[in-house]
Amino acid sequence: MAQPRIKNKFGTLIGWNNITLNLLGRDVDGITEIEYEDEMEMNNEHGAGNYPVGQSMGNYTAKASISLYVEETIALQKSLPPGKRLQEIAPFDISVVYEYDGEILKDVIRNCRFKSNGRSTKQGEGKMMHKYELLTSHVDYNI
Predict the structure, then answer these.
(1) Series of mean pLDDT values for 10-residue runs along the chain (143 residues)
(2) Are 3 and 32 in contact (CB under 8 A)?
(3) How far is Cα 99 from Cα 13, in angstroms, rounded to an integer?
(4) Cα–Cα distance measured from residue 62 to residue 39, given in angstroms and rounded to the nearest whole number
(5) What is the Cα–Cα distance from 14 to 17, expressed in whole angstroms?
(6) CA-CA distance, 15 to 69, in Å (whole number)?
(7) Which helix H or strand E contains 41, and what residues bound it?
(8) What whole-number distance in Å separates Cα of residue 95 and Cα of residue 102?
């Protein structure tokens, strides 16, 4: 009887353990999540009849967010002059570096700024963290 073949098309998949994140010139350890995406407005344009006669492209937008332990947030704030808020940090890039199939890949989230500052925790958790929405101009993938 023939043995079933196991497909392993992609090998070891990229996961959290493969990522190094650099923020404001230093690798960040106290991070639990990063999200980034971009999109281009696209529309079908109609004329005579039921079907589109063409397509149009509009504005580009990018979004990003990071979740940090409060200890990482405190370290960031301590690196600032007294009285300065996270929202006042000049625009910075975030580099996300990961390995895939023996190759080092890097995405860069450009011109980031903190939109808010805060703390979050809930009953039963032994940690304190917060998700920060970032203002960003664009994302460069695989540079």
Answers:
(1) 71 83 87 96 96 97 96 90 92 92 91 93 89 97 94
(2) no
(3) 10
(4) 6
(5) 8
(6) 20
(7) strand 31-46
(8) 19
